[in-house]
Amino acid sequence: MKFLATAFVRLLIPIGILVAGAYGYTRLSIEPAEEMSEPAEEQVLRSRIVSLASSDFVVKIQTNGVVGPHNRVTLSAEVTGTIRATEVAFEVGSFFQAGDLLLDIDDRDYQTALQVAREQNKLAKATLTLTQSAHERNQELARRNSASGAELDSTLSALVAAQSQVEITASAIDQAQRDLERTKIYAPFDGRVATKSVGVGQLVSPGTMLGDVFAIDYAEVRLPIASRELRHLKLPEREGDPPVDVELRDAIDASSGSRWRAKIVRTEGTLDADSLELFAIARIDDPFSFHSDHAILRIGQPVVAIVRGEILRDVMVIPRGAVRRLDQVYLIDRDKLTLRSLTIDPLWSDADNVIVRDGSIQDGEMLATSMLVYAPEGSLVQIIPDDSAAVSLAGEPPELEATP
C-alpha cells in the first residue's frame, strides 16, 4: 500500500502540471476584443512670420585692417661726430614740421674743413692768375720769335693744371659745405617720432640709425578683400579710377562709437599667396585731427572697415535665422495657411540677412521665421501674433557684418 501511494503521488504531480498548463494556454490564447481608437488630430505648426517685399539692397562688405603710416623712414647719420644736442621735437611721440631741427652733431671739424677748402681754393685761383699771365707773356714772345715752342707748351701745361686745381678746390668746398650741413638733421616732412635710438654725447658714423619717423598728413590701411566679394565691388585699378568710400570703426572698443571716413585709392597688383585675397589700400586724411574734428586715429590701431559695394536691384531680403541648412526656407500660403519649402540660391549673404532674386517668391508672401523641427510639406500653420515681426523688409537694412 505504501508503494502504491508513493507511485500515485509521483503520477499526480506531472498530471497537475499538464492540466495547469493547458488551462493557462486556453486563457491566454483568447484575443482581446479590439477597442475603437479615435483618429489622431492633424498637427498644426506654429510660427512667427515676416512679410517679404522686393527692394534694393546695398552690399556692404566688412573686413579688418591695421592703420599704418604711408611714409615711414629711418633717419641715419651721414657724417662722423658726437651728438651735441637733440631737440624736443625728436622725442618719441613728438610732432614736428618739415624743416624742423631734430638733432645736432658736433660740427667744429667740418667748419675747419670748410675753411681749409676755401683757403685752398683761393690759393688755386692765385696760382691760376699767375700761370695765365705767364702763358700770355710766352704767347707774345712766341709771336716775336723770342720764346721757343717748348717754353710756350710748358706755360700752357701749367695753366691747365692751375685751372684744374681751381675746379678741384671748388668741389672740395661743396663737399665740405654738404658735410657741415649734414651735422644738423632736419625733419623731411610733417610727422611724428616713432623711435629714438641715440642720445647726447653718443658718437655716430655714416649709417648709424638715429630713429624712425613717419608722416602724418594721411594714414593707410591694408584691407583684405575675398575673391568672392570682388564681383560686388568696383575697386580702383588704374590711376584716375574713382575711389571707393569706406567707413572705419574701432575694432578694440566697439562701444566707443568712433567713426572715420576713408577712401580706397588703389589695390595691390597680386593676390595673397596663402589666402588668395586682394589687398585694397584705404587712405585716411589727417589721422591725428589737426584740421578736422574726428577722433584721433593712431598708427597701429586695429579697425573694422565697412566697404560700400554695388546695389542689388529688386531682391528679397530674408532674415538669416529663417534659412535652414542647404539654403532652405519655409513659405506660408496666405489663403490656406499651409507650409511649403523652397531651396534658394543666394546672391549675397551676411551675418543677418540672405539676399535672393527668385521669381517663385512673390511680394507679400509670408516667410516662417520660427525654428520648425518637424515641418512636413503642406502642413497647416498657426501664425504667432507678433506685430514687430510682421513688418515689411523693404528698404535698406542696417549695416551688417559680411560673411558671403
From TrEMBL:
<feature type="domain" description="Multidrug resistance protein MdtA-like barrel-sandwich hybrid">
    <location>
        <begin position="71"/>
        <end position="209"/>
    </location>
</feature>
<dbReference type="Pfam" id="PF25917">
    <property type="entry name" value="BSH_RND"/>
</dbReference>
<dbReference type="GO" id="GO:1990281">
    <property type="term" value="C:efflux pump complex"/>
</dbReference>
<dbReference type="InterPro" id="IPR006143">
    <property type="entry name" value="RND_pump_MFP"/>
</dbReference>
<dbReference type="InterPro" id="IPR058625">
    <property type="entry name" value="MdtA-like_BSH"/>
</dbReference>
<dbReference type="GO" id="GO:0015562">
    <property type="term" value="F:efflux transmembrane transporter activity"/>
</dbReference>
<protein>
    <submittedName>
        <fullName>Multidrug resistance protein MdtA</fullName>
    </submittedName>
</protein>
<comment type="similarity">
    <text>Belongs to the membrane fusion protein (MFP) (TC 8.A.1) family.</text>
</comment>
